[in-house]
Write a structure and sequence with these properties.
about 325 residues, alpha/beta, Rossmann fold, five-stranded parallel beta sheet, two-stranded antiparallel ribbon, about 10% strand, globular, thiamine pyrophosphate, pyruvate dehydrogenase (acetyl-transferring) activity, PDH_E1_Alpha_Subunit, TPP-dependent acetoin dehydrogenase E1 component alpha subunit AcoA2
């Protein structure tokens, strides 16, 4: 891990994870002040899964994020200024302030959207993958979903459809062990989600979602398989340190459990790995920390300085009433 290529990659992954973490910390802060409305679902602790996955893709690849998709969108390349403005409901937002936290989209970056329906990304991904296959394009569609969504009918219908039609879909499960307040062990007799690919005749891999390097390598190999052969399931085991949503009091799990996972969080792991391997110096890592703090502060200021949409804009960009 001592060559310059791994250094560049490590710093890129670390930067994406820092941006994701600090973006959500700011969102959490301004929600608490009543300056951001609606709701939001944070992915603090899951940054390694998002960064590693997006870094393993090609620029032309597409993705559907979950309702907990800030980090997924950031790591796919959406401008953080536009994302922050969107969260604040400002007209300069990536969706002109009309999408908010759960509906981030930017087709120019390959982010086809996110929504609040659990598992809804899966059938949508089959659609974009079908289009890519018909056009004979070198494009893979990633469908992010959580462990809870693997119990939805849409999951099984989409896995079956993608398998039968040989669609270039990469099903990526961010397994954070909780569906809202319910632990995975309470709703699955066998908690090995990768086994759910077996009936659909597709391969599956399980990876440590807190190891961004490992996730990236897994995704790169999976992408090559999907382009040539059809769908694949990837399970990225991680942990949601933040609550389910802004109103979550975390009464269903202990502080000890949360603190144990905090100690294994992907940002600290990446820093330790880069230092231990002699790939980066402490000053280089701290510089990324400082740079991302400044970028997020600028994004917040951009959002605060931006105007709200005019009332006359309410029906613009609306395709159905």
């Amino acid at each position: 891990m001592k060559n310059e290529k791994n250094k560049e990659l490590g710093l890129k992954l670390l930067k994406d994870m820092y941006l994701s973490r600090k973006f959500e910390e700011k969102v959490q802060h301004y929600f608490s002040l009543g300056m951001i409305h609606g709701t939001t679902h944070l992915s603090i602790g899951e940054e390694g899964a998002a960064a590693g996955t997006c870094e393993g893709l090609e620029p032309q690849d597409l993705m559907y994020a979950t309702h907990r998709g800030h980090s997924q969108a950031i790591c796919k390349g959406i401008d953080i200024n536009l994302m922050m403005a969107e969260i604040f409901g400002k007209v300069t937002g990536v969706c002109k302030g009309k999408g908010g936290s759960m509906h981030i989209a930017d087709k120019d970056k390959g982010v086809l959207g996110a929504n609040g329906i659990v598992g809804a990304a899966l059938p949508l991904a089959c659609g974009s993958a079908f289009a890519a296959k018909r056009r004979k394009e070198d494009v893979v569609t990633v469908a992010f979903f959580g462990d809870g969504a693997s119990n939805e009918g849409a999951f099984h219908e989409s896995m079956n459809l993608a398998s039968v039609w040989g669609l270039p879909v990469l099903f990526v499960c961010t397994n954070n062990t909780y569906g809202m307040s319910t632990h995975i062990s309470k709703v699955m007799k066998d908690t090995d989600i990768a086994k759910r690919a077996i009936p659909y005749g597709m391969p599956a891999e399980t990876v440590d979602g807190n190891d961004a390097f490992a996730v990236r390598e897994c995704i790169k190999k999976a992408r090559a398989y999907v382009v040539a052969n059809g769908p694949m399931l990837i399970v990225e085991n991680t942990y949601r340190i933040s609550g389910h949503s802004k109103s979550d009091g975390n009464l269903y799990r202990t502080k000890q459990e949360i603190n144990e996972w905090k100690a294994k969080n992907p940002i600290d792991k990446m820093r330790s790995d880069l230092l231990d391997a002699g790939t980066c110096t402490l000053n280089e890592l701290d510089a990324v920390d400082q740079e991302t703090t400044e970028l997020i502060d600028k994004a917040v200021q951009f959002a605060l300085d931006s105007p709200y949409p005019e009332l006359d804009d309410v029906y613009n960009d609306v395709y159905a009433l």
